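Open question from group meeting: does this chain pack into something compact, or does most of it stay loose? Before anyone orders reagents, we agreed to write out a predicted structure and look at it together. Recording both the input and the output here so the notebook holds the full record.
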Amino acid sequence: SANADGSIRLSLEGVVDPFVADYLRNGIEGAEGAAAVLTTIDTPGGLSSAMQEIIKAIEASTTPVICYVSPEGARAASAGAFILMACHIAAMAPATNVGASTPVGIGGVTLARKVEEDAAATMRKLAEQRGRNAELAETFVTESKSITAQEALDGNIIDLIADSEREVL
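Structure tokens returned:
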């Protein structure tokens, strides 16, 4: 149910797995009629299949999905960076970071060029879809680049830096 401000709050904490994907998909799909869905993010990343499911739910949502990397020290790494790029509005708390999205296989081995190129294309598409800096977003994949909230704001990766959920809304 919506908060007094009309928003629904969700949280993506820890590894992106099928349970997290189900929880977020159900939360987003159930937000019909709410003013917004505010999803706080702090994740090292996770499964590509679970990430795709979350992104599809965000893209299909008629309610704006706001992603907020929070609290201070949080990160939207790997799958988390793709999810942040997919959100209608992307925000970060000060002293957070986003990026480092090179696909990694079993045992930590970086996956083949083809998989990396596919991931880079997906990152580009998500950034372009929301009018964000596709070239910089792509370096999260191709160079495992990770950037601070301020660099993300300056580089047109996110829409705002905010100290609190209230400030984001």
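Observations to bring back to the group:
The helical segments are 18-29, 48-60, 79-86, 113-129, 134-142, 149-154, 165-168.
The chain is about 40% helix and 20% strand.
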